[in-house]
Write a structure and sequence with these properties.
Length: 114
Amino acid sequence: MLLLAALTAIAVCPPADAPGRVKCTAEVRSEGARISWADIVITSAPAFVVPLRGRMPPSDATETHDDLWKFAFAIVAKQRGHGELVLRVRAVVCNGDACHAEEKEVRTLVSVGE
């Protein structure tokens, strides 16, 4: 019997004082299994935000461990505002030689000048 690992993900975009570039981070964590592959896709952004890239492939991970992958990415705030950025996190997690794909939706607030 294959036990599925618990995949969790979080994203954070710190509040910015003024429009411009906002640096965000995302973390993907697996409890009880090894992450062999992961990426991040921005699926929705507030109207005042433009993502610099829509997808962060595995090669863009800033840190990789068996149970934790970290990504850094940037968005550009065109004006002041407050809204939700939505990401899709995809990962392949493995227990020994048995691997399976998982997907999670992650939401984080973007606040600029508020």
